[in-house]
Design brief:
heterodimer; A: alpha+beta; Ubiquitin-like (UB roll); 28% strand; B: alpha+beta; Aldehyde Oxidoreductase, domain 3; 8 strands; 25% helix; elongated
Chain lengths: 81, 138
């Protein structure tokens, strides 16, 4: 098993009521597997929210296998300015 | 040269510089908090950042802007935390030889900032409740 730290912001934080989630996943799990889990756990609250994925503080364009202690953020549309 | 700061507290504007001899244009943009958000009256916005990544993305964006446009310097301050209606949340100054490239660089920089820098707004409504803003600009 691997441990993953999920950082929550904006609508993701609102959906879970938490700043972060710590999840245990099977070895070989990918960012898309994790996104599916996150969306299911949100119980519909993120169904209409588009999410980009940041792995260890960098956007990643493709599905990537996760490693133990990775930090993942599901980034809702940003709103700086 | 670039300068990037993410600040929790009021923005102190960059100082006017009368010593620049190669720059014919000094462009200043201040983004301020409007009284309405998604059609509702608000008292403030609260800006949230992904600490570390927000500053890294903003720095990378400023570097890309300086490569893409023939400008000399780009300074930017973005505020996080509570920003009351009317206050400045974003302050950008660009210096360039002529206004055209400075204006184009400013427009591109702010557009890209709103697409990729992980900063979000929470609306503080008049009844004191706090909800994630749904306002997102391309």
């Amino acid at each position: 098993m691997i441990n993953i730290n999920v950082k929550c912001f904006s609508q993701v934080k609102y959906a879970f009521g938490k700043d972060e989630l710590n999840l245990e996943l099977e070895v070989g799990a990918t960012t898309l597997d994790l996104e599916k889990i996150i969306r299911e756990k949100a119980d519909g609250k993120l169904d209409t929210v588009s999410l980009r994925i940041a792995l260890n503080q960098k956007y990643i364009p493709h599905e990537t296998e996760l490693k133990d202690r990775d930090e993942v953020a599901f980034i809702p549309p940003v709103q700086g300015g | 040269m670039i300068k990037i700061e993410i600040i929790n507290g009021p923005i102190e504007f960059f100082r006017n510089e009368d010593s620049r001899q190669k720059d014919g244009a000094e462009l200043i943009f201040n983004g301020r908090v409007r009284v309405t958000e998604n059609g509702e009256n608000i008292t403030a916005l609260e800006y949230e950042q992904y600490k570390g990544m927000a500053e890294a993305e903003l720095t990378q964006l400023a570097e890309e802007t300086c490569k893409k446009f023939p400008i000399h310097d780009l300074f930017c301050k973005h505020r996080i935390g509570r920003v009351d209606v009317g206050e400045t949340s974003l302050h950008v100054v660009i210096w360039s030889k002529h206004r055209k490239e400075g204006l184009e660089a400013m427009t591109w920089f702010i557009s890209e900032l709103k697409k990729r820098v992980p900063i979000w707004k929470w609306a503080i409504l008049e009844d004191g409740s706090r909800i994630p803003s749904e306002c997102s600009h391309g």
